[in-house]
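anyone seen this seq b4? input:
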Amino acid sequence: MIFLSGHGGMMNAYDMILSRRTIRRFSQKPLDAELLKKFVNAARLAPSAANLQPLEYIIVTEKKQCAQLFEALGWAAYIQPKWTPDENERPTAYIIVIVKDSKNPYYKYDVGFAAENIVLAAEAEGLGSCILCNIQRETIQRIFTVPSSFTVDMVIALGQKAEQPVVEDMNDSVKYWRDESGSLHVPKRKLNDMIHLNKF
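predicted toks r here
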């Protein structure tokens, strides 16, 4: 069992995975940089192909830098008309994942492992997260003076949750959507539709 500070008690790892949803609306309570270092430590200990460990991380908590970074991010492409969080709903912190050897053919696996550890560590603290890959990489590289020998891969937005998306069985579309009350609905494939036991 794992004690989850944001969930009011004990929850096992599997239940925590089931409870995690992508969050795109956040309350404006600041996050402490030391807490984000804890999340990066979880990423540090994720599996790494050939143990090459090509990833590094930029923690962003300063309000002005958060505002600059926000402008370089694309949000919720399925929601139309085009939508971004309002000023009072924006993330209050970010972790930028950068790669020091993008020629390594396996680094994308490392990014995925690390990102999942970060968002699960955030969930364990009762915090929301959103993995963003629709980003302006060159702009981010310039804002945060990332050396040209590194590649900006993704940004993980973090903050206190201000919404609770609803998971539902997928029918004919993968697109998430908001209802009239603003609640986000996320279709997921049914478990039995993707399991093949002992043969395809």
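Helices lie at 13-19, 33-44, 63-70, 107-124, 137-143. The first helix runs from residue 13 to 19. kinda curious what u guys think
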